DNA sequence: TCGCACGATGCTCTGAAGGTATTGATGTCT
DNA sequence: AGACATCAATACCTTCAGAGCATCGTGCGA
């Protein structure tokens, strides 16, 4: 049982289209005798007569004309498979498992997906909402390709890049005395006030930002919440003051006033004191494939547009 | 630019599934070195790295795992193409262009299609309603494979076979004196009565049957219609008497009475005087493929069932 | 009736693909 | 830490599938 060969199918297509062995052979850049033999082999391999040939004429049998259609399909499938493999290697096609944190990255996901769908329509993004720690684990296990999370990370196995920076705001209830103060606030402006801060483990990043800002003041932390939205709701209820990223102002919680803060010194060397809240993209060190590079580029592009929109 | 070979794809599938060149080679009944070379050739032909291999381990790249899926598809398509070609050759799959005459064969088409769909689900029947002459032309031009028509035919280019015989009935209005006569009628019973006959060219077969039946009587033909249904409507309106095939009684024209006739002698040698109305299947002489044979068998089977139903 | 067009067949030879032996690199076990 | 085992890659040789050339057989047209 000799198997069917692609060459045989190629030969068959030529003969079926020309209905003439000589011309078909010419088209295939070969001579007629081996072409006849290839067709014979194909017919025995398929187990059916595909071409009815007298000494003077060639015609397709019904089995042959059906097989011709299928032959086209096979070659198209092969061509597409090759082209698709190339696109995947070049990063213009493929699948990306993208992790994100609910409260921080969710705002850029919509524009990101739109932008990717426009530029890289063959790239499929599968979203995974996880806390930073979960994203790190996912990347190490190969479940995620890219994460959008808050520092710090284990830089021995992960690479990261800042994709967005934004200012830290104080948020106070509209009825609060601070609501009408002019100019940026310093820690001393919060002296004696109740502060809504964040969970030291579950929301470590914002907890540390808050602590860093308050370090030289004399305020007191009265709550440790896990979600920024929770903090804002508590502030609206008059429970105290909270520090939130600038983009939180677009969450639309009513009855709140957002106040600029003095620059926050003491971050890592590359940080921007005016925009201390950083969102990082993270991935497995050494696994920055062309596809990830493309997606990362779109993430930064979208995040930058988002930041600009916040400035205006 | 060496083209992709099926052997290369086969090798790739084995390696991709085993993730081990040695085991994959064993599965392919070959040794490891040529397998390595086949994979290399495939990768250069595709233009992408499909397998990431260190000296100790083999892993699929993302391009490779996508190509693996496509590889399965290609092999499935090939297998199906081969199987389909065999089925078409054996006659258990394919397409049949079937001609039929509106008034005569239409009653068996429904059961025929049901029966074919049950036994030969991969056979597609395309119906063409044509008069006998149109069917003959269609068969000669290759537009039709099989026809259901009335004799005579040009037997030098067509083969034919009787698929159904049925009695000829006289149909009279319920108010007519003949409606109450007992026993089969002879031509003398119609003496002096107005007869509805058929168009000598367009409905030649029934015209000749009518003339043959009346040849020794003294009735007069007052109409030449083209359709059996037309004749029956005229009879119901009291315009005269008509001769119709037995199956016409199932057309459901109200106010009619069907009378048996004496046997009709003088047909061709094989004819049955009690059932002189014949339906023939016709096809291009020498073109009785297995598929046509199957379909023809179903036609006869269904027509026989139909006849039996009429007898009861 | 002859000749020609065209597919099939026989024979030879080349080159692609397979096999054996070996290398080189990388984990693993003691 | 060193000896060993494992596994893919490479080198070299061998074989057979497939290509080309020459020829045959047979219908169709002049």
TrEMBL record, chains A, B:
Keywords: DNA-binding, Transcription, Transcription regulation. Residues 4-61 form the HTH lysR-type domain. This is LysR family transcriptional regulator. SUPFAM superfamilies: Periplasmic binding protein-like II, Winged helix' DNA-binding domain. GO terms for molecular function: DNA binding; DNA-binding transcription factor activity. One of its GO terms (cellular component) is protein-DNA complex. InterPro entries: LysR_HTH_N, LysR_subst-bd, WH-like_DNA-bd_sf, WH_DNA-bd_sf. PROSITE patterns: HTH_LYSR. Belongs to the LysR transcriptional regulatory family.
């Amino acid at each position: 049982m000799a198997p069917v060969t692609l060459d045989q199918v190629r030969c068959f297509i030529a003969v079926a289209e020309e209905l003439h062995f000589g011309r078909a052979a010419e088209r295939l850049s070969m001579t007629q005798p081996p072409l006849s033999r290839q067709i014979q082999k194909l017919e025995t391999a398929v187990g059916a007569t595909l071409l009815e040939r007298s000494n003077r004429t060639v015609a397709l049998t019904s089995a042959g004309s059906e097989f011709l259609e299928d032959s086209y399909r096979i070659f198209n499938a092969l061509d597409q498979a090759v082209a698709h493999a190339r696109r995947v290697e070049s990063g213009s096609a493929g699948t990306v498992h993208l992790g994100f944190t609910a409260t921080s990255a969710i705002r850029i996901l919509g524009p990101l997906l739109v932008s990717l769908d426009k530029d890289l329509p063959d790239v499929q993004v599968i979203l995974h909402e996880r806390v930073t720690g979960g994203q790190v684990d996912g990347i190490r296990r190969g479940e995620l390709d890219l994460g959008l999370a808050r520092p710090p990370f284990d830089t021995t196995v992960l690479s990261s890049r800042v994709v967005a920076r934004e200012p830290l705001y104080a948020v106070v209830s509209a009825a609060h005395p601070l609501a009408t103060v002019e100019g940026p606030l310093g820690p001393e402006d919060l002296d004696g006030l109740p502060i809504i801060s964040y969970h030291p483990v579950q929301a470590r990043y914002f907890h540390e930002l808050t602590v860093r800002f308050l370090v030289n003041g004399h305020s007191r932390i009265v709550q440790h919440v896990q979600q920024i939205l929770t903090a804002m709701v508590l502030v609206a209820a008059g429970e105290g003051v909270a520090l939130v990223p600038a983009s939180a102002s677009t969450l639309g919680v009513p009855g709140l006033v957002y106040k600029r803060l003095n620059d926050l010194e003491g971050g890592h060397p590359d940080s921007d004191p005016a925009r201390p809240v950083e969102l990082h993209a993270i991935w497995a060190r050494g696994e920055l494939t062309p596809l990830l590079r493309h997606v990362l580029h779109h993430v930064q592009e979208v995040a930058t547009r988002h930041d600009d929109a916040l400035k205006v």
